[in-house]
Amino acid sequence: MTRTICFDLEGPLSPQDNAYDVMSLVENGDRIFEVISKYDDMLALENREGYEPGDTLALIVPFLLLHNISEEDITRVSKQAKIVDGAKYLVSKLKSDGWGVYIISTSYEQHAYNIGAQLGVPKENIVCTRLPLSALRDEMKGDFSIIERAEKNILELYEHIEAPEKIVHRLDKFFFEELPRTGYGNVLDRVRVIGGAKKVAAVHKIVEASNGGLSDVVVVGDSITDYKMLKDVKENGGVAVVFNGNEYAIPYASIGLASLDIRFLYLLTRLSRKDLMFEMAKSWEVKRPEFENDPGLISENLITPEFRRFLLESRVEVPYFNYLDDADEKKMSEVINIHKRFRALVRGAVAKLG
Asked: How many structural domains is the chain composed of?
């Protein structure tokens, strides 16, 4: 069996939403980002032709240019990013077990390569969004008046963020009517974000290069940009894992893992077959109430001595594994609520973003 695992970056490997934090360098940038992120969710959910989940990272670029944000600024913000607890341990264990470890991320290249380097994942194993800000700024030729007006409108829209029709009407006009008339052109062509279907294509390309099949793949995601990747791998016989996911991703996964520490994913990947991973998740789910009171009760077939010792000594909360293929509406709602709590603990303020 070819052992290949593909991680989304922001959420499973690093809690930072790099683009959100980069926009926060700008006055009221957090509000601008939140409105555009809401717009992104709405376009993605209505399956707008030519639009993919995660294209937020293309939509904010005109505002980065307006405020003279540079590639160096993105790198500087990235260097402040934390790594999710257990991520370095997990990647090291996976590599020592012979897994091919890949990152498929909407993140800008400056952030993705930085986090990848910290985890020991080489650039050639990272698929991410290329962002040549300097070249884009040169092409604008100082034509920023339309972007300035749109920014003022967006800040007004923040007060009506729960009124989607206002957001869609104004931002459709800006991004797809006004902006193309400037030197910037088509906003989605300028920056090709690795989200939605592009993540699916990246998984297929990785699989083809490794001479394996989708049934040999594990993918790990958490948000709306990952749901197509999770769905595709699941439907083609692979294992789709959602880690501290939101309501957009969880319904498309095979297994849910909610935890403050991602190292527990190793309890699945150490198993040799997909059916064993599913059985492990089912057994853990049933018995977890016992484990919560006493991790010493976890049976040997579900845990290694090292992990049992880690749970007992660290006193980290016992993780939740859930088997999701047969989940009804009630169970799905319960799992979403569990993940919502862990997502907020791990990711903080950005947990609310799609």
From this structure: 1
